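Thread: "does anyone have the structure for this chain?"

Original post by V.I.:
We have the sequence but no experimental structure in hand. Need at least a predicted one for the grant figures.
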Amino acid sequence: MPKWTKDAKEFTVVVSYDGRRGAQAYIPKPVAMHLENPEAITYSIKGKRVEVSPASS
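Reply from O.Q.:
Generated one for you, tokens below.
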């Protein structure tokens, strides 16, 4: 597991591809902690950007 600097604001992760399940990537620990360790996350496509947020209940 990579070590992130304390003040990091960008996180690059490797994406694994599986023919049956699609793409997989790990959420960096600082991001998960910032999102308060959600059980699920939502990816929102906004133009050429993608936003990540905790899933709404």
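V.I.: this helps a lot. The helical segments are 29-34.
O.Q.: and Strands lie at 16-18, 22-24, 41-46, 49-54.
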